[in-house]
Amino acid sequence: MVEYFDIYDEALNKIGVKARDDVHRDGDWHCVFHCWVIYRDESGTDYVIAQKRSANKKIFPEFLDISAAGHYATGETMHDGIREIEEELGLVVNFEDLIPVGRRVGINTYNGLIDREIADVFFYICDQPLAHYVYQKEELAGLIALDVDAGLRLFDHTISEMSAPTVGLGQSTVSISLNDFVPTIDRYFHKILVLTKRCLDGEDHLLI
Question: What is the value of pTM for the model shown?
Fold first, then answer.
């Protein structure tokens, strides 16, 4: 079934509707939903849940990415985005439980596809063990819990790799380097790690 997205100009004025493949072919601006699952464990260690994209994804297969994310179909709003959390992670949440982190403008290319996205970004605090996630195996190869402090050292180039617990990848832990993350021009993952600590510390002013 063909998916259709609303498309926009640079000022976020809606200018039409277009099929998904055509949007990525032509590089049209479109809106998406991003939710990062975060938590602080009993020892005080902060974590971000990252998904490893399935090998059959058209864009950046087998790279580490947002906990749960997806495109809005035409006519949908950010409130509709919570379905992605249930579909991809098996978590049933209320929109009111999400913590807004602002709006991100992202541009990327992959094998001729042009992805220009305006993302509504949220945090969701959940300390559920990795083994309890019922993740969407058609879309995700597995899940990884990123230690925020180790991740910050990784993105600061203090360390070249880090170890992280996993589920679904055939082993209990994996070694991660910067090359494992979906590339971005705005240090998106690094910003998320910084904001995760601020959020879990109880700060109110969070903006991506």
Answer: 0.97
